[in-house]
Amino acid sequence: MFNIKEELKKLPHTPGVYIMHEGDLILYIGKAVDLHNRVRQYFQGPKGKSPKILRMVQRIEYFEYIVTDTEMEALILENNLIKEHRPPYNTMLKDDKQYPYIKVTTQEMYPRIFKTRNLLRDKNRYFGPYTNVLAVNQTLDLMKKIWPLRDCRRNLPRDIGKERPCLNYYIGRCCGPCTGSVNAKDYGAMVEQAIDLINGRHTAIVQDLEQKMKVASDALDFEKAAQYRDQINSIHFLSQQQKLEHAGSEEDRDVIAIAKEEDSALVQVFFIRNGKLIGREHFMMEGTSYLKPGTIIGVFIQQFYSAAAFIPRELLVEEMPPEAALLSQYLSARREQTAQRSQRVQILQPQRGEKAKLVHLAHQNAALTLSQFGARLKAETKRTRGAVQQLEALLDFNEYPIERIEAYDISNTFGSQSVGSMVVFEGGKPKNSDYRKFKIQSVQGADDYASMEEVLRRRFTHALTEIRQLAQEGKDPSLGRFTKLPDLILMDGGRGQVNSALKVLSEVGLDIPVAGMVKDDYHRTRGLYYENREIDFGKNRDAFHLITRIQDEAHRFAISYHRKLRSDQQVRSVLDQIPGIGSVRRKALLRQFGSVDTIKTLSVDELKKAEGMNLPAAEAVYTFFHTRKEDPDHAAPDHT
Is residue 105 within 8 Å of residue 295, measured between CB atoms? Predict the structure, then answer.
């Protein structure tokens, strides 16, 4: 039995992180310079505590703590644990993982530039995150017009000259590094100019294009000159959307202000690069009703910049965070880690001048955005987290909240090409990166129950194996691809599917709630089968719509994978009919030319260019398709 009073006496006078528990549920995670003094404050009466904290303290059954050497280590550990566990009483930055970045693969000899939503520690360069996806797409489209950079995934220089160039090369949208016609130095110069465009440094780019336009015009190449003119106009258009001159120096800085409403706050950030506003974004913070603006800004800085690809040298804030000095130290270390110059990051609250005007402008934008989109943001919250809360009430989940839901479905055509799908929803929203698909291996024919058992057995056996391996290696189990387990499993069916899932969970030694999504005669969701009874949604319409979305998504994901396998099988069946074309040559043909439709149109000489294809094999392919076209009784199967 955990005796809180006795355990408080044992707390050390050292920095660290404390974790408040109610059973298996983590209620709150915090850091402290002195664990002994900080944790005791929670249990020393109600004076000075917000109603939210008082409610939390009433639920605490026990606490644990992790000692660190410094307050900085405690800050980093606290941030990592909050992101992993998302405790209900912590103030949380919403949706910080869904915003896109622009990635430059600087670790490659011929870098690519593209949009991504995954920020990896791979030593490449990232810019963002951006909430304005349209602006990201406009920037990338403009780059493609100006610089013919590659967007293929070929391994260069290893694969130079091994395959024919792609279509982009022939239409002038790629300079063709795969052909060996461009050296890495010239290609790298184009990449650096593109990075300048991302950073809002347009002047040198425009001057270069203007010089090229003049040369083309003098040479009477008016078509080329017109292309340069259009590119210059596009840059001017983009810069007008981004540009905000101010009287300060041409520094990189972010401007942060907030607007509050009830239990949420909207944080507005202006991103200023080289003295120009290149973007502005807003972020919603949850659980802020009793927090001061400076505290909210401090939490935002800690959570947002822990994953940001770029950290400027200066943050201008509306209110100073309580731990500004510690945050400044943390950001300076992060700035150095992200391969930027080692410079101290300053957090400033300007009182007058141009910087103060920028902060005031950010605050006005925050208030305006909250008034314009507050209702929509609340509706979105009601549709997602509100729906999950209704689901918790329907299923009588009192012990812990539902954060992660996994749903499964099976798809096949009369038992052939049987596949399974696993879709994941977290906080009421799909988490596409965690989706998984399974090709059924041990079941013959259309046996959905046995197929589902195989899928679940593979999913959870893999998870437990990964957890054990990571534990043996002394690594965090959350690093595994399959190790995060659901709070609720949804099956596409009633009693039979639920029992199949419970059987597998019992075999592997897991205790996870399972509910079935029951359909009516029109194949529409009508209720949930849970703990041997069918539960009607009643007035819980948000929960009903959430379950419908999950069911549709599981079905869509399974169907799309099944169709792909069926299409691949049809393609194979066509090429396998050709004498002398085995699996190796079949794969080489598809890799070289992309599709059977393209292969049909090629000459013998063109077919010989595929790896492993000699003259007899190329003639066999050519004869097969052209003879069959002339004979209507032997028409090639449709494989579209």
Answer: no
- Per DSSP (E only), the strands in 501-564 are 514-519, 525-530, 533-536
Q: Kindly report the pTM of this predicted structure.
A: 0.45
Domain-located, residue 210: yes
* Beta-carbon contacts of residue 393 (< 8 Å; ≥ 6 apart): 540
List pLDDT tens digits, range 578-630. Answer: 887 887 887 788 778 877 778 888 888 888 888 888 888 888 888 888 875 44
Instruction: Calculate the average pLDDT of the chain.
Output: 82
CA distance 363 to 154: 46
> What pLDDT does 29 receive?
94
User: Is 386 within the bounds of a domain?
Assistant: no
- What is the per-residue pLDDT across 441-486, written as a single tens digit (0 to 9) for each? 887 766 788 989 999 999 999 888 888 888 787 776 666 677 888 9
| Judgement on whether residues 417 and 541 belong to the same structural domain of the protein | yes
- The verdict on residue 149 lying in a domain is yes
Q: What's the per-residue H, E or C state across 182-220? A: CCHHHHHHHHHHHHHHHCCCCHHHHHHHHHHHHHHHHCC
Contacts (Cβ under 8 Å, ≥6 apart) of 107: 122, 123, 124
Residues 586 and 531 in one domain: no
| 3-class secondary-structure state, position 516 | strand
Q: Residue 520's domain spans which residues? A: 404-560
Cβ neighbourhood burial of 523 (10 Å; 0-12, 13-18, 19+) = exposed
